[in-house]
Design goal:
Length: 441
């Protein structure tokens, strides 16, 4: 008994520090694991955030997110949302474009939670149905021929990564002989996640002004050639495709150029204008809700997602550094510092009309205003209150077209009396063309 008791005492009388050491070791392991897990989550979140704007994808605006509550011959009732209740014009698509209806401004509120909009045009034979529809921010569908009845040539632009399909709409030269094509061309560039159809709101006006239009695609677009990494570079690389379009236009007889772009396309246009080998042939820029400052855009969206500050910094590092670029599968980093108002203020050399939607929650208007403040000698900033991203035309097509026409008439010395032009050139409620379709091409 004494031996057993002595043994028990020996066991219980061990140095208590060893227990603390074991507990400390376990705690350190747990803390280290928690740290590694936290760091891993931070890195994973940053990588997802960095890749979101780089992966080519169709616009979220194509998703059927507008509930249609009632369909009448002359009007449609929709759930009231910021977009359906917004002033201006709206078009709806169903069944991938098999249904495409154009609607006028809000005309009433049948119930406390719905709005009524008049039907002003139908581009397809099928009826709109009660259910969900998607909003076509481009308003028009199809091609310049099916939407507007304009003569269209499908051409290919030879870019550094391969052929890029484009729409060519020739306009007669007002100052030339009969049948002569205009020597002033406009290169039209769509935005991130969009298609060439984004330019359908501008093509009739440019055609009426005597400007030939070349509406391009760029790398990683559907139907266009892919880049080596199959990733968007936010304009850093895509400007080369716009430059190829310039060379195509010059080879076809163009003598002076207008560059026009929407959203990321506006950023591509800006970058092209300062890097092009043909800057002397560029006469004017027209930018619609352009991506002037990608760092600002990325931080804005990360903040909206409530991302912590370290995650934002890590995501920007992944996009803009050689080592970080490999983590998001970019073949080269994004030169974010070269896509800011301060950079463009130093390098811009062309008269620029900059229209920006003031309710833009995709590309905040602040950097556009800052660029105009830095270069008031070159940049005319025109805010559009009440318009959402790239929907200035939809909000007020007459004002949009008059503003653009006045800018081009002055800079290009077109000799056009803008005040007498019947605008918009193609009325939102114009009858559908024969063979009209509802597809976004």
């Amino acid at each position: 008994m004494m031996r057993a008791t002595s043994t028990n005492r020996m066991v219980t009388s061990r140095n208590p520090r060893s227990g603390w050491a074991r507990a400390g070791a376990v705690g350190a392991i747990c803390a280290g694991g928690a740290f590694l897990a936290s760091a891993g989550a931070l890195a994973l979140g940053a990588r997802v955030m960095a890749r979101l704007p780089l992966v080519p994808s169709q616009s979220i605006r194509q998703r059927p997110d507008i509930p249609v509550r009632a369909v009448h011959a002359d009007r449609v009732h929709l759930d009231e949302t910021p977009e359906t209740a917004r002033g201006g014009y709206l078009s709806l698509r169903q069944q991938g474009g098999a249904v495409h209806w154009r609607l006028g401004p809000v005309s009433g509120r049948p119930t406390p939670t719905t709005v009524s909009r008049p039907v002003i045009g139908r581009d397809t034979d099928l009826d709109l149905e009660v259910g969900r529809a998607s909003s076509n921010g481009f308003f028009w569908a199809g091609s310049p021929r099916t939407a507007h009845g304009l003569p269209l040539e499908e051409v290919e632009v030879a870019s550094p990564v391969g052929p890029m399909p484009a729409w060519l709409v020739r306009s007669p030269d007002p100052a030339g002989t009969a049948g002569e094509t205009s020597r002033t061309w406009a290169i039209l560039v769509h935005g991130h996640g969009a298609t060439r159809g984004e330019a359908l709101r501008a093509i009739p006006l440019l055609h009426a002004l005597g400007i030939t239009t070349l509406t391009i695609t760029y790398r990683n677009d559907t139907g266009a050639s892919d880049s080596a990494d199959r990733m968007h570079h936010l304009g850093v690389a895509e400007w080369e495709d716009a430059e190829a379009a310039i060379e195509h236009a010059l080879a076809a007889g163009a003598q002076r150029l207008v560059l026009m772009g929407w959203s990321m396309g506006g950023g591509i246009v800006l970058r092209t204008s300062v890097l092009s080998a043909h800057r002397e042939q560029i006469a004017a820029l027209v930018l619609d809700s352009p991506a002037v400052d990608w760092r600002d855009i990325l931080i804005y969206h990360a903040t909206a997602l409530k991302a912590p500050a370290p995650m934002k910094k890590l995501a920007l590092w992944m996009m803009s550094s050689p080592a970080g670029a490999r983590l998001v599968r970019l073949h080269e980093p994004i030169a974010l510092d070269e896509m800011r108002p301060e950079f463009y203020a130093r390098t811009l050399a062309h008269r620029t009309l900059l229209l920006h939607a003031m309710d833009d929650t995709t590309v905040p208007p602040g950097p556009s205003r800052r660029l105009a403040d830095l270069r008031p000698d070159l940049v005319d900033f025109v805010p559009f209150p009440g318009a959402s991203h790239t929907r200035e035309w939809n909000r007020d097509p007459q004002r949009w077209e008059r503003t653009v026409a006045a800018h081009l008439a002055e800079v290009l010395e077109l000799g056009v009396d803008v005040d007498t032009l019947p605008l918009p050139v193609r009325a939102p409620g114009a009858p559908a063309q024969e063979g009209s379709i509802g597809l976004r091409l």
